[in-house]
Every structure is written in C-alpha cells, then in structure tokens.
Amino acid sequence: MEVRIWRGKAEGAFSSYHVPVRDNQTILDVVTEIQREQEPALAYRFACRVGVCGSCAMTVNGKPRWTCRTHVTRVAHEGVLTIEPLRNLPRIKDLVCDMGDFFQKWQKAGGKHSGSLTRADKPALVDITNPARVTANAAIECINCAICYSACDVVAWDKDYLGPAALNRAWTLVNDERHSEREETFDKSFGEGGCGSCHSQGNCTRHCPVEISPSESIAGLKRAAFSGLPKMDGN
Fold it and tell me: What pLDDT was estimated at residue 233?
C-alpha cells in the first residue's frame, strides 16, 4: 500500500512510503509503523488509541477523521492513503497542528462553566427530564478533537468565525441551570464571528465522530434569539 504523508509546515510536500496491508489495520497503525521503521522524524499526535482523547485527528483522503478508529479497509479503496494535518489550523510540523485558535475561540464563545455554588453547598439537584437538560445532554459529549472545525467551510474563509465546537459548547451552557452566566454566554455566541455567521452546511454534524450535531446546537441558539433562553425548572 502506498501512503502519502504531508511533511513540513504550511510550506512542504508529500512524501511517499510503502507499508504492508495487515488485518484490522488502522490509519494510526500505519502512521506509527512509518515513524518507527522508515521516518523517525515524522511528527504526529496520539494518546489513548481507542477513540477517547481525539488527539490523533488527521485528514485522510480528504476527510477529517480519528485515525485510531478508522480502518484502512474503509478508506484505501485504490490502495493509496493520503494523510495530512487537519484543515483550518496552523501547521506546526508534518501532521501536527497548532490548536491554540481552536481553544481560544471556545473561550471567546463563553465556553467556561461558571457555577454559583460553593464547597459548603449541597450539589445541585438536576432534573434529567427537564427539556433544557435533555437538550444539553444531547450535545455535551464533545471532546475537542477539532474535526468539526476542520470540516467547516465557513471557518476556512472566515478567520473570525468561532466554529461549530465552540458554539455547541455555548448551547450546552445556555441549557445548563447550574451555569450562572447563561445570558452572558448567550450574548457571546452572537458576538463577532458568532452563530450568525453559520451557513448551516452541516459538515460539522456529518463528520462528528461521536455523532453530536453542532448544526442543531447553532440552530437552537438562533431560535433562542427570538423565543428567549430555554426555561429552567418549568418556569
């Protein structure tokens, strides 16, 4: 199998390697084998190897994927793999991106949870049947892998757009009764580069490895601009 891997920073080129096809082989297995046996200087990220951390996300044959969960047989239909870093993020070296912009936009969208209780207070009693809580739970499993950010065409041409992950996070907090700054987070989601910039193309939802729908979360924020913030405790 031929494997073409991006080498260098923004200015760079593809280098070709050949790796034997093996049973149950993942893209991350291929990259690791090349780094260990052919190209020791190859830079890439990984941690858990089982689809929990999201750090191994790369662009494989043109699409952003978790490489630890993507089997070669699913994507190398022509016997060729082309592996690049994620789109829409500055390239540090080879397959490694600078995630700084991604996380800064998360904060700009009001993504930090702010509670009103102290250690001396009893834990908040959350009604899991409350519609707002159900809505928050549907979007809360994001692990910051940045695949949606890489897949988003709006991010590609609008450097100020906060991106799907950041706005999805804002939506979970707007629906969280324990978050003491719900209105502030909502206002930030409509600030410069906020949800008004989303074109509802749906690439974020289509590529999310954990099947979250940032498109739906952004649509929820837009609806709330007319209907008001989600009600808490039935009020």
Answer: 64
Q: What is the average pLDDT value for the chain, to the nearest integer? A: 94
DSSP one-letter code for 9: S
Query: Residue 152: is its pLDDT beyond 80?
Result: yes
The three-state secondary structure class of 192 is: coil
Query: For the domain that residue 33 is a member of, what is the CATH number?
Result: 3.10.20.30
Find tokens 């908040």 and name the residue.
Answer: 124
**Last-in-domain residue among 45, 76, 97:** 97
Question: Domain range spanning residue 113?
Answer: 100-227
Mean pLDDT over residues 106-123, rounded? Answer: 91
**Residue 176, both tokens:** 């969280």
Q: Are residues 72 and 107 in the same domain?
A: no
Tell me the C-alpha distance between 89 and 111, whole Å: 20
Greatest alpha-carbon span in the chain: 63
The tokens of 42 are what? 């190859």
**Which residue would you say has higher pLDDT here, 134 or 124?**
134
Q: Is 234 a member of any domain?
A: no
User: What torsion, rounded to 10 degrees, do the Cα atoms 19, 75, 215, 147 define?
Assistant: 0
Measuring CA to CA, how many Å separate 132 from each of 69, 140, 168, 210? 32, 12, 14, 21
